[in-house]
Amino acid sequence: MAVGIFAGIPVRDCKSAVEWYTRLLGAGPSFRPHEAEAVWRLAEDRYVYVVEDAARAGGGVCLIWVDDPEAEVDRIAVRGLRPVDREQHGDVGKWVFRDPDGNETGIGGELAP
């Protein structure tokens, strides 16, 4: 079975969310279906998007799994964002970022030995 994902994050203001997620993800959106939605392609068949939906904004939770999470968090820091929390579960680490609406995006993966 092939696996893909199209994960949505509700935000109050799409324009400001695009600015924040561009800093988090290191690039602008891959495409914009309309003014109230922006989509980033993370890998083949794996997407994350923000959608303007003030009633649901702030309740999103997602984790982006990467090969070298510590290096990714360092790259994000250069773009001006810092994690608000860090978790470790055995050999897996997770750094938690919160957008201005309070949505949580984790950057995680296996830690180097």
TrEMBL record:
<dbReference type="InterPro" id="IPR029068">
    <property type="entry name" value="Glyas_Bleomycin-R_OHBP_Dase"/>
</dbReference>
<feature type="compositionally biased region" description="Basic and acidic residues">
    <location>
        <begin position="92"/>
        <end position="101"/>
    </location>
</feature>
<protein>
    <submittedName>
        <fullName>VOC family protein</fullName>
    </submittedName>
</protein>
<dbReference type="InterPro" id="IPR004360">
    <property type="entry name" value="Glyas_Fos-R_dOase_dom"/>
</dbReference>
<feature type="region of interest" description="Disordered">
    <location>
        <begin position="92"/>
        <end position="113"/>
    </location>
</feature>
<dbReference type="Pfam" id="PF00903">
    <property type="entry name" value="Glyoxalase"/>
</dbReference>
<feature type="domain" description="VOC">
    <location>
        <begin position="2"/>
        <end position="110"/>
    </location>
</feature>
<dbReference type="InterPro" id="IPR037523">
    <property type="entry name" value="VOC_core"/>
</dbReference>
